[in-house]
Structures are given as C-alpha cells and as structure tokens.
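testing teh design pipeline on a random one, pls ignore if ur not involved
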C-alpha cells in the first residue's frame, strides 16, 4: 500500500511543525514548506499526493499560489486559513482548491478532510503533472523532451515506443521514489482499472521492454530496479534543464 505524501505549506514554523508531526502520526508522509519556491522544489523532487496550503504566507498569497499550481497540474489542494468568511472561501474554490479549512481546526477533522480529498483525488497526484519538455540526463543517458529523442552514453540514439517513452517520463520525474504498478498505470493514464491483475502484468511487461533498451544488463538492472513488495524505483540521479 502506498503511503500518501502530503506537503504542508505554512510560514508559521510552529504551526507547520505541529501539522507535520500530527499528520505523520496519522500514517502520512508529511513534508514541510513555507514559500512557493519551496513548494515547487518539493514537487520537482518527488511525488506529492495532496497540498495543505495556508492562505496567508507572509508576503505571498496562498490563493494566488493555488491558482498557479492548478494551471499546471491536478494535485489536490486544501486551503487553510484563519479567514473563514464566505468570500474568502469562494475565492479559494474559484482558483481550483479542493477544500477549505478554517483555523483553528480540530485535528481529527483535518485528518478526515485530508482522507476525503485523497479518496476523491485518485485523479491527481503530482506524479502525472510533468510536462517533460526539457533536457533530462541520467546515468550518461540524455532524453530531449522537445525532440522526443533519447541518446545512449555512447552518443547513439535509441528508439522507444510511445508507451516506453511515457514510462521513462514518469521515472525521470520521480527518481528514487518507490512507485507501485497502480501509480505507474495511473500516471500513464491507462483506460483500464489500474489496480487489476492484468494491468499489473502489463506494467511489468512494459518495464521489461524499457529495461532491455536502457540497461547494460536487463537481467541485473542498475537503474530501473524492482522494489520488493512495492513495485519499481528509478535508482539513478536525474538532472533537468529547460522547460
């Protein structure tokens, strides 16, 4: 079972730490951030399943940040604010927030709202938002998202199918993060039930095909490894340049 990864965004260090600790005790992975730049850095370095975003972030505006994030991706966002008037709530919903919680809040209510939005938001982890138009480098390989070309360490181009390329993009966006077959299938936007046994086998076959093209020894993969009891992990440093 995948543990949901939450991003807690609040410029109040004490409140941020309290929310992180509480949500971790409830079984979530909770990561802190205090600015939009930190939010984007967190998203760029791993999967985020839900963002708890404070409306008042010092000189920054959480509602405006929510609007910018929503224009780029579908990761669920719950706005948190001491301002609970209807106009404030409506402003949040108008920019695409999934829910709105007023401070002070009951911690049990916060947990219930987070779980409810996660259930509704199967659409939506940040795993699937990547545009992948830049230049990616990993283990001596290069993937040019604009040209849709992958080049081996020796300098020769390797042909990938559309689905192999789509899988590679998911992996490049989430290095060193164990991904379940269900998460991979969802990110690939497969039409079938991502949790079905047949879908899991299809992902295994696809992984095998990609390994045969990018691994020196596909039988002993060094980059695209099997994560026992979970699924797969792209165990290689990835750098990205450009948009």
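output:
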């Amino acid at each position: 079972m995948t543990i949901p990864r939450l991003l807690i965004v609040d410029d109040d260090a004490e409140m941020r730490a309290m929310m992180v600790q509480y949500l971790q005790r409830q079984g979530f992975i909770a990561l802190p951030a205090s600015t939009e730049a930190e939010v984007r850095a967190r998203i760029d370095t791993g999967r985020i399943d839900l963002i708890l975003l404070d409306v008042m972030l010092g000189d920054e505006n959480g509602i405006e940040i929510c609007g910018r994030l929503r224009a780029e991706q579908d990761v669920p966002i719950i706005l948190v604010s001491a301002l609970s008037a209807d106009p404030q709530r409506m402003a949040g919903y108008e920019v695409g927030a999934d829910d709105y919680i007023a401070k002070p809040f009951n911690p049990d209510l916060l947990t219930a709202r987070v779980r409810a939005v996660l259930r509704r938001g199967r659409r939506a982890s940040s795993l699937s938002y990547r545009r992948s138009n830049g230049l990616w480098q990993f283990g001596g390989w290069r993937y040019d998202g604009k040209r849709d070309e992958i080049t081996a360490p020796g300098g020769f181009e390797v042909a990938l199918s559309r689905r192999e390329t789509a899988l590679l993009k998911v992996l490049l966006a989430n290095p060193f993060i164990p991904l379940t077959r269900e998460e991979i299938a969802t990110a690939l936007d497969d039409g079938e039930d991502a949790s079905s046994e047949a879908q899991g086998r299809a992902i295994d076959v696809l992984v095998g095909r990609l390994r045969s093209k990018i691994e020196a020894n596909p039988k002993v993969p060094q980059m695209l490894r099997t994560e026992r009891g979970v699924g797969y992990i792209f165990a290689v440093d990835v750098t990205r340049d450009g948009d």
